[in-house]
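Lab meeting notes turned into a lecture example. A postdoc, R.K., suggested we walk through two folding results consecutively so the class can see how the record format repeats. The first protein's sequence and structure tokens come next.
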Amino acid sequence: MHLTDGVGDNLVEFTYNWEEQVDGVWKGRSIGSILCSAVTMIRTLQQLLATRKDITAFIKKAKSKKPSPKLDVCKNFDNTKLKPVLPDNAPIAIVLFAGGGGIEAGMVEAGIRPVIAVEFDPSKPELSRAIAKTHHHNFSEYGCKVFQLTVQEVAQSGFLGFPRRPDYLHASPVCANFSRAHTAKAGKGIETADDLSAAIAVAEAIRQLQPRVFTLENVPRYQNSQSFSIILDALELEGYSVDYSVVSMDKFGLPQARRRLVLVASRGFRVALPTGAKSCGWYEAIAHLIPTMSDSQLLPKQRQAVEQFLATNEPTPLLIQRVGGRTESKYKPAHLPCNTILRSHFTDHKDCNRSKFADIWLPDGTVKSLSIEGAAILQGFPGWYEFPNETATAGSIIGYSVPPSFATRLFISAQSKLLGVSV
């Protein structure tokens, strides 16, 4: 089973082809004139090992819908540097604790329109405003409105101006008090009144907005918190089916070993977490960018790391952190995913820019400084997302974000259920 494309009158037309046995004879079958907007979903359904029956059912349903005139020309097919064009009837989403919009980037790639994003951290007001500005820059064309308020404040207003019964509601509550770094520094994670009030606000959003699908992402330790229990109780009381697990996102095609708690809940049908994809090494993901990166020099501890590696291994490109690395290897060989990317890699203890945050050592002795663009790819951002020039702001967006490439897989899997396709 495969897709083919042809060009006529400056339009790209896709056809879905397969063979089936009729009276002992194999015969070719096809469905033609497939909308470009449906192609990404079809390819992902194939990756998820959906049956031909499920895929053809999805195609027929997609063909039965009236297309938006904007989708007549598939100008952005297979080109992540061009932003997706969404139809007027695209599913809508609300995002709480939005940050710079990593989850929204994944939603857009999955054909979902973010309409409201809530982003404000009173502990870092200037940074939060800068992040919200970047969010607006990237998603305003989709009609997304950024509320620069806390989630608690919009809950107190009764979610005034929010659409009821949206297709999707997502929350990534602030995770600082549950992160491994905080626990190592403080001796134990301390759940605060702000954490609990944030969870209560999320629970209230579930009750009042009644989304068709609710998703949540956080660090693994969040699942042991009272905050998480508050959200789970709200979902149970409202009749949602819930599936959650700690996933390693390098098992979903992200070139980064990032472990996160992911929850998906739905009502009236069941949405499960997506299945995994082929793992990818960091070098494969950003090799094309390395020649354009700035030259650098290794710090003494980085040189020691290289010598340690070469003592027992053949030379290969190494990605070496300049900061951190207390609990994990400071370097990563080319074939492995990189270490978890954190906001702290890009800023010092005063929240000022770091000029360098990681280096790439090549077997010929060349050393390159990992760029923001490279870090963004390692975090799964599409090429069309535009970052601010300030390293601290751009790095914060990257470090805080749900990896968009994982989000795309999550929401395409959910979309297949909303459209009545079983995968």
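The second example is placed directly after the first for contrast:
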Amino acid sequence: MISEWVSFMMFYLLAAVFSAFLAYCLYLRHVHQKYDHLPGPPRDNFLLGHIPSFRRAMKSKSLLHDSFLQWGEKYGPVYRMNSFHYVMIMVHCPEATKTIMMSPKYLKDPFVYKRLFNLFGKRFLGNGLITAVDHDTWYRQRRIMDPAFSSSYLRGSMGTFNEMSERLMDKLEEIAEMKTPAVMHDLVNCVTLDVICKVAFGVDLNFLMQTDSPFQNAVELCLKGMVLDIRDPFFRLFPKNWKIIQQVKDAAELLRKTGHKWIQNRKTAVENGEDVPQDILTQILRTADEEKVTNAKDDELMLDNFVTFFIAGQETTANQLSFAIMELGRHPEIYKRAKAEVDEVLGTKRDISYEDLGKFTYLSQVLKETLRLYPTAPGTNRWLHEDMVINGLRVPGGCSVAFSSYVSQRLEMFFKDPLKFDPERFDVNAPKPYYCYYPFSLGPRICLGQVFSQMEAKVVLAKLLQRFEFSLVPGQSFSIKDTGTLRPMSGVICNIKACS
């Protein structure tokens, strides 16, 4: 009797599973029919869509964004990609980019950005400025953060930019005396991390003096985890990956525990009437108090943004500087012109003033061209909730629209000879790119730290050009590594010599 009952249960269970699978397949067929009028690469298979192509690119260490670029060149400015029942439309049409990115009514795609709320089940970026999908949640946070990132407030950070950059110069002097190659990405990564710690949170950790910092390792692991978790839906299913998954979860926990400690220490100091640094954290707490933002939920959001600052603010600037140094090393004529401008503006003085930054015209062009070829945060997504005609094609609502700055900034239709590093593209008299150049995104969700990042990059690069001659060590790769942000594969290995 019991065996018959079990048999019936197994039969009905299998029948239910089969029915659910059949229903899902019918739904998937409906989704395909809905969007298959749009051009795009052939799906690898009916169920998985293009997931096998993504996994092959990741396993081969090739850059997935290069596949997007090849498809963009082949299929045009609007093409389709599939992942199970999820449809993503890649768009490189300037008019559509303007319409969607500049409007607050097109929210960030919850499928993409909610995946970053947790990292393998551990709260990571939460509902911070980058990941908040709900417009009201985002706007409330942005209103609190804006005063701390205004140009007038950041002007007072020039002392820290100079101080931390001087530490790098001292380190490079040691390396030059020893006549050993310098891995520039590792060095500038330490500087940008020191800057964000000091300018934002009043903490001086001096990462250039640390050989194996758990904090740096945690940032690195979290970046790696972001790519693995978002792009490979099967990654967490295999036991061989469980060790790295646990390491990533521990890293996220370390970042959040550190943030909680620093924020609580500052709150206590403020409540006790102690003198506190007039840094970004103090400004944020002051504004939050004025806005009467004091509950536990808002504290958790503040912690989300602590992690966001470190992941987005430090890593991207370090990568931009690394790529800029790499391209200056590859183009001696550009190097000489940038150095001549720095020497003319600074002369022999060591400290760079806020006013000096505006005089670095050609250096700014170098940094902008660096971000054109190597946008360190190479794309963003919006949710298309309504039907729209894009570049003459009807795109049904209910899908994700992806904007890749990496692709649009490397397309021949927008930039002549796009793979050539040419700062003249950003000369004041050159035609301005029309909604095809957006390394810091566009519209209401444009990067809050854009001014901060470029001020810091100019100070570090100007000091480097003023004080040292550098050349790339032959034989290294100039390929790009994707760790969630884009960075040089080789780390940019240079021979360093102090200027006489």
